[in-house]
Recover the amino acids of this structure.
DNA sequence: ACAAACCGGAGGAACCACCTCCGTTAGGGG
DNA sequence: CCCCTAACGGAGGTGGTTCCTCCGGTTTGT
């Protein structure tokens, strides 16, 4: 789905470059892993990645010592990106818009990427990187919250830690309902946001229709588990 | 935690009653299973149940043909109970109170019972029973929603299917955060509910404090996975 | 054309959950 | 009180999964 131009071919200066076929396969593996992990999550086997890359498992393990190394290589950038999203939102002029836009972007990032979601929510793999990112985001989020409260747009009893809890709820929902209706989470974010005002007039319009009864049924049936 | 008086000792009329030790163990198993499944969820092994009951695995399997049978025996009543909760809520005079009270009771039931949560959210074990319950709750929930909308207390773009999605979100949160702060879900339910009014004045007070930064850290560290 | 680098994927090792089997224990009718 | 039998415990079989290794064969590039 995400066809990023993987710019990971830099040779660690001093080591022989990979043979042409090896480098080609390396790229295929990274691309396949990106797709498989974002779509099916970190539970996906390296065998699956190999199959998706049109390559043998051995080839994957020759390039990346183990699963964690591959995951780390893939997600470093995306995790950093979460911090950037927070900082960018902070830059917006309107405090309330800044706050809302951050919630939306953060949730969207998690909702569209099962692997990233698992990385942030549970500490599977690469915990240090994740902790570092969280530490960097903390202050930024606090500022977003304080500004929105100072301008009187955000209820006073809201706290910075609530942001992560909300992100978690929406991410869970996205994981559960994603197969049937990838965007429903936006509907419930909208409801929540209406709950975050100190007071308000008319309800804001909901961006996504409610799931149908049929969809609800598919959901439970689909989850096998 | 829940020390229900298990009234499951009725002899199926025509079969010899169990020997005294056998009956005692049967009760121990049911009690232990109730505790283990509500606390740790349906992933718990029957070996765990046996250990908690102070009994060998063989004894468990002699009384219940397999894991599913035990789960079914245990949760039938609790699932039925969910329907009753909906019907009871329906009986309240104030439509908005009825609606809110249902949301709260349903979420509370799931939040306090990992096994029930998994049963309702994913179709593990006993799907028929669950589907039957869902079918019975459907109309009741619709009525709750319609009444609350007719009285002008609930925003018009809310739909009956939203109830289950919200229950799911809160249940996920409860599962994630339950170890650290079993009641946080109430905070977010309160936020959501404030978002469900067509319009409103001051925000209603939040029933639970936000998690502390420390708690948030524990959460991620605790989830191992 | 030859050596070094690389490939594929069968399969080993470790793990886990469910369940079975059988030598041993203990209830309770006679 | 004795003995038959129901019931017990828990070691271990079975099947399934995931991570990773190994080696006979292939490709590359000099």
């Amino acid at each position: 789905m995400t066809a990023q131009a993987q710019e990971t071919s830099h040779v660690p200066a001093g080591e022989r470059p990979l043979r042409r076929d090896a480098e080609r396969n390396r790229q295929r593996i990274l691309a396949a892993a990106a797709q498989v992990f974002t779509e099916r999550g970190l539970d996906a086997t390296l065998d699956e990645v190999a199959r998706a890359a049109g390559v043998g498992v051995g080839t994957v393990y020759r390039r990346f010592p183990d699963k964690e190394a591959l995951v780390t290589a893939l997600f470093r950038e995306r995790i950093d990106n979460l911090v950037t999203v927070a900082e960018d939102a902070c830059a917006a002029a309107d405090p309330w818009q800044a706050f809302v836009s951050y919630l939306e972007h953060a949730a969207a990032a998690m909702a569209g990427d099962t692997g990233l979601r698992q990385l942030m929510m549970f500490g599977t793999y690469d915990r240090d990187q994740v902790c570092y990112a969280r530490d960097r985001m903390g202050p930024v989020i606090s500022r977003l919250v304080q500004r929105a409260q100072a301008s009187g747009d955000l209820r006073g009893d809201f706290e910075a830690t609530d942001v992560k809890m909300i992100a978690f709820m929406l991410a869970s929902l996205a994981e559960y309902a994603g197969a049937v209706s990838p965007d429903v989470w936006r509907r419930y974010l909208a409801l929540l946001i209406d709950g975050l005002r100190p007071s308000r007039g008319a309800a804001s319009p909901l961006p996504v229709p409610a799931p149908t009864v049929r969809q609800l049924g598919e959901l439970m049936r689909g989850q096998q588990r």
Remarks:
- Residues 19-22, 45-47, 57-58, 61, 66-67 of chain A lie near DNA strand D (CB under 10 Å from a C1').
- Chain A is about 65% helix and 0% strand.
- Residues 67-91 of chain A form the longest helix (25 residues).
